[in-house]
Specification:
The structure is a homotetramer of 367-residue chains. Chain A has 367 residues and is of the alpha+beta class. Chain A is built from nine helices and 18 strands. The radius of gyration of chain A is 21 Å and the shape is globular. Chains in contact: A-B, A-C, A-D, B-C, B-D, C-D. The interface between A and B is large, with 115 and 115 residues.
């Protein structure tokens, strides 16, 4: 039943429904001594916040985080960091008409099946709103990782059929573009495509990708807690994600051993690989190349067309979904993927610190 | 560090190296009262066993399982079920030449990075041999699921560029075909393709898929232990898997909300869906449709061509890999995917039994 | 590092420092459909609240709980229940004088050793104030258990040398007496003893006990998650507790097999025991007799006498502790023990629901 | 259900029944690079082995451990260490007469209640024989701890009414005395006492204690995974243990704050305490003093007198227990307590390595 926690040593627990009073996150196991304030969280939350552009719902969420514990005199204390966001602009009345109907593509039916009933306001716990809590934890994890020289950057690879060209990738382009694509031209075309879809009362999917740079070789815990296995759980746990790929991903099924193998080479900086088909992970352990995680995201299920469905009493009926919805989820979900990846690699890094007895001795001798 | 366990209530722990004395699995949390003997395990292990056909290595593994605990008078007792397989036919000398070289596409380099050194015989713990232990647990989970009317069936969808037609799917075809494809013609073409690759000292990848039928709606634990999230961890933890897809998977990125949404319909048997783009899971919870999990598998990294690499001392060098290797991993990995899926859904089913207070009361009143 | 969660399926996570802005608890895995409101929590919090009587500190804590998620239309939804209490009456200035001194009997020194620094205001995370969050979870667990006919009742067995006579035990006496003793005369004597100690600037310890009635036989998970083992972790995790006993506890060391064995007898209501030396648990599993957990509590370490100690710089010095402190911890800790016991047995009950395949089938067939 | 694992990062899983074919332990998360062989395990197993003296059952157990994985060229590899012991001298016929009777003081009734049936041969999983697997893990943990300069030593404090004088404590006396008491005179008196009990077909209990020396300050994870809380779970999970005390333990209930507080003092070697009433733990974190864990053990429930009981059909009857049984459990259980303490503190040490960001940076920079 208890499925709202993630991580073994840097462990997060999220709580809160879409249209409840508040939502939040408890981060347990963050090392002590890291500078942290609400200012570190806001840029992450702003990237997820709706109402910022034409590609997102006009619904407003204040998303002002408040750190309630675990930070003292500006630094983490090692005790649980509790962060809360109070909800506002709750048009929960929007959902009264459909509280007994099962929205296609949504979790209404499955929540009712599992729990016997549900908070029908805006999807309740199954709403994308829950991810605000993950983004808080992602901001904290990213802060810790940045102290270690590790960067985690996600971006939109595709919006519907429009694919981004990564050859001129820059973080600033990603942050500036409404689609979170690292390609100015593709961004423009995607905006047009989305505008057209909105006119047709339809929605589209897309692809998002995350690149983790600066990871040393040796992180990940075979055989079930392999780094790629936990990244896959992390990514697939984001609502609307339907595929996860590492490195070349699905392409490997059509490649050959002779081309897919990344040959090693010795350099002044150490052992590296000539190519990175593996996506930075071999045998579930980081190999020091960039770690690449890619996800496909389904089209927003809330569309304003009339759809066939069933009600709680088990009768066939029609449904019309009102309210304000994103025509595509990807632009706002990119920071959620980035957050989940940051949490996962930080947890793996901390959990694996004791892999060699020599390291244990060295830490112990300084205690 | 400890990453060799999987599951929360039906929990498995695997151990053993490729060329060690033995390998095995401890299955903790299996309900008491299930009939179980070695006879239930052997068919699963046989599907994974090498040396059965031209598509697999000629290496022989005895793979005779012995149940050492947790079963009494032919039934599970609820206590840990320990199963062991002794290794035989260990040509570990094959690996002496390359013990200081990092095989491209293998985990030699990353294990050395993490642990400081490694058991170099046949990949040690990172060998595909480890999955024999998973298959044991999968056989047990499948046995329990079959008592509940749930079937879990995996098969090869593609071998390199050759794709199977699923329209005449039958379990017996899958079990009869050397490639584990559910398509006699594709199987024949794939065998030719593989034979050609072997002549070229090369290897190929493929796609495998698992279908879980008979799952009731309501299984899965939001938000991080969503059923699809745990299936993704389970599937990606299998060596050589580089992508995981649920239902339509990567295709959703190019679909529209109006077509991707599965509309509900009321039937005499209850609420179902007109289509199954979702792959049987909504909001991380089963929706009673078939659950579809699909994985891409990379080409076998062990190929007999000379490759560039680096040795333990950090010097550039060449490597020639001898020994007996599968030209494609998929045919033998299909049962591993099936096993991991069975373990995951059984664990989710048991873990979620307490989701409604009415169910808890009803169980309690019979105690 | 992450040690603020407890439970496997009914899992609680507490957060918050003594003099921070707020503290709280996230309860994940509570079955859906249980009636719950703040009114259920307040009586539990009131029993822990200081300022109620002469035996407790005059410090005031508002302790007004607010449920922020997981309850909809008066019933639990199965999703995480987040409850917050805002702190008030924070005399954190009381601690400025001693922020660089290590209070004897407190965790100041060990927190500094572990984390490098600490929130020195009132003990921060190591304060007894943290237990308010446990009591919230205990109230929820007790509510669920009461629906199953299980009662969990704790009381003071001894205050310093004064022992309670249990022969006239009643819950109402426990709740009415300032000491939480189930004995009016002992309560009066204990109050005198405590008044005398206050005059002497000293403090005392005591014994508290919890009785769990109505548990069916068959709950608990050998071998490390035995019911008594988890109750011991739960009880010992309460600050100031220094011993845990089950049933006859320490007395068994001097008893004989012939007298300590509880003989079974058949009754109309089923199999029971003639005596209950075992304290309701055999082999880590409930035996249907009352479960008895008993703890010794150390004297409040904060006393207003001058004591020798060391400062952060490692220099010997004197310390005078000001502020308002309980002369004895037991009366307010009784509800914390009750809470931890309720959480533990509910978790064990839910976690063990799948122990028989027949039960699994029966639940599954109704899904 | 799954309760056979213990530890978060140094995680052990035990399996095996008393009279099954074998029993064993899987140790996951042991740091790589530690010298280890069967020779390290045997002295621990010998201390637990029956048949060594007059105080123990004459039953013989071969207890020859075999390491099957996780060790290569004499060193741990960081992968799971699987160790097996094959059972021999299985007089399981001894139990045929009583297979439908519930032995008083044993777990027969509760196992039947939980699982529906049980392996009745010698207690099956509830037998003390299970602890052989714990001792294996304890030997490995002790080996690792010894490399860090930490010693873990347990001994018998009391056998029935006879208490040991600790003033002349030496490890060699403990190992030489049949009772595991660190006092030659008490050992002699205890042997007489036990001989007398055997004549009377009775059994007795006792007290065992473990002292952990060399632990640095700062180990333990508040608030539920406090070091004393996990030590309590560990100790109470040993069959027959009915109380756990830390430091002064139950005595604190009658002490005063002015005497129970351990005052700190600065010394050349760092901050220490003038006394050690706390038993080496403050606020759940080690304080660098010796950690003291003390347990009361109940009398062996198997006695050869006729006792009243109930059979599986729920009828009152008599029972006579045959077979060979220890008149007191303590002498052989001492090494089990030592093992569980070693496992617990090593796990806490490894799990807490990431408590300070400075330590994380220092480890990371060397990767």
């Amino acid at each position: 039943m208890a499925g709202s926690s993630f991580g073994r040593i840097f462990r997060i627990t999220t709580w809160g429904e879409s249209h409840g009073e508040a939502l939040g996150c408890v981060i347990d196991g963050c090392p002590a001594g890291v500078s942290l304030s609400e200012e570190d969280l806001i840029p992450f939350l702003d990237r997820r916040k709706p109402g910022n552009s034409s590609v997102a719902t006009s619904r407003k969420e204040s998303d002002t985080p408040k750190i309630l514990s675990g930070v003292f005199e500006g630094k983490t204390t090692g005790t649980p960091i509790s962060v809360i966001i109070y909800n506002s602009d709750q048009h929960s009345g929007d959902y009264d008409d459909i509280k007994d109907l099962y929205r296609p593509g949504h979790a209404d039916f499955t929540y009712d099946s599992k729990y016997g009933f549900r908070d029908h306001r805006g999807g309740g716990r199954s709403s994308g709103r829950e991810t605000a809590a993950r983004v808080i934890a992602g901001a904290v994890a990213s802060k810790v990782l940045s102290e270690l020289g590790i960067s985690v950057e996600a971006y939109a690879r595709a919006i519907g059929p429009i694919e981004a060209d990564l050859s001129e990738y820059s973080r600033s382009t990603v942050l500036a573009n409404a689609t979170a694509m690292p390609d100015i031209s593709a961004n423009a075309r995607a905006l047009e495509y989305i505008a057209d879809l909105k006119n047709k009362s339809d929605s589209c999917g897309g692809v998002m990708e995350c690149c983790i740079s600066g990871m040393p070789a040796g992180v990940g815990d075979p055989v079930f807690d392999k780094l790629d296995a936990l990244l896959s759980q992390a990514a697939m746990s984001i609502g609307a994600v339907k595929s996860v790929e590492i490195g070349d991903g699905a392409l490997v099924s059509k490649s050959l051993g002779s081309t897919n193998n990344d040959q090693f080479k010795a350099t002044k900086k150490g052992i590296t690989k000539k190519t990175n088909h593996s996506g930075g992970i071999l045998g579930g352990i980081s190999d020091s190349s960039d770690i690449i995680v890619r996800c496909s995201v389904k089209p927003t299920p809330s569309i304003s067309r009339t759809q066939k469905t069933v009600n709680k009493a088990g009768e066939n009926t029609d449904i019309e979904i009102k309210g304000r919805h994103d025509p595509v989820i990807v632009p706002r979900a990119v920071v959620v993927l980035e957050s989940m990846c940051a949490i996962t690699v930080l947890d793996a890094l901390l959990y694996g610190m004791s892999s060699k007895i020599e390291t244990v001795k060295s830490v112990f001798n300084k205690m």
